[in-house]
Amino acid sequence: MHARACTCLTVLALLAAVDLAAQGPPGRGRGGPPPSPRAAAPVDLTGYWVSVVTEDWRWRMMTPAPGDFAGVPLTPQARELGRAWDPVRDEAEGNACKAYGAPAIMRVPGRLHITWENDTTLRIDTDAGTQTRLLHFGVPSTTDAEPSWQGYSVAQWEGIVRGPGPPEFFPVGLNAREGTQPRSLEVVTTNLRPGYLRKNGVPYSAGTTLREYFDLHTERNGDVWFTVTTIVEDPEYLTEPFVTSTDLRKEADASGWNPTPCAVR
Asked: What global pTM score does this model have?
């Protein structure tokens, strides 16, 4: 009798677990609509953030010398275009923001202000270049829109990357990511106006696809950071994806916020 009673209790516990799983995540009633991307956010990216430059100083904190393309896998055509860079011409043509497009803006030193514009759109404002990015959840890109510096960004919260088992020792590919917690924001941006990956004329084309992963983390002293991994894919000007990572630290308030216009150098 004792063994039979234990078996019954086990079955009841399993049925209860299945029933809870069928109800979906917290905030979603049985048969009800799913929570909005804002309500379902596994992390809070809102607030003011400042970039902390610990690498690539010579390319980020100053305008690189003409022809300094080190680290960027450029095609011969792209190198030729880069060597023809003329900041005076860019300024005269109203193209001072060519180095502030979505593929480059997260690397520009400065501050970000991240807010929710609505329940399905996360907004990123930059003080450097006074740019605005809109990250759209669940809304496909439209081909009718005019290409722009910030393009059209489609976002989603990353689900659990793998189960609770041991991680892979040799993950393969750009999308091989480890972790058991959904903590990253994934963004894909297209419909871009041609611009620069660096201020000295390193080009990207209108056919560029930008992929980004935003990861939030907290240090032992309580500081909150996020790291954005940026993957630029350009079949015209890059021989392989151009991958960078950028760190930003959360600030307590807007005291350091200082919007400035685009500068060609």
From this structure: 0.81
Per DSSP bridges, beta strands 111-118 and 121-126 are antiparallel
Q: Which residues lie closer than 8 Å to 147 by C-beta, 6 or more apart?
A: 191, 192, 193, 206
Q: Using an 8 Å Cβ cutoff, are 117 and 124 in contact?
A: no
Residue whose entry in the numeric block shows the structure tokens 């860019």? 90
Count helices and strands (H / E) in the chain: 5, 11
Cα 249 from Cα 224, distance rounded (Å): 6
Buried b (16+ CB within 10 A) or exposed e, 229-249: bbbbbbeebbeeebebebbbe
Bridge partner residues of 134 (DSSP): 123
SS3 178: coil
**CA dist 157 to 25, 160, 183, Å?**
14, 10, 8
Q: How far apart are CA 80 and CA 203, in angstroms?
A: 10
pLDDT value of position 55: 87
Greatest mean pLDDT range, 4-13, 26-35, 176-185, 203-212: 203-212
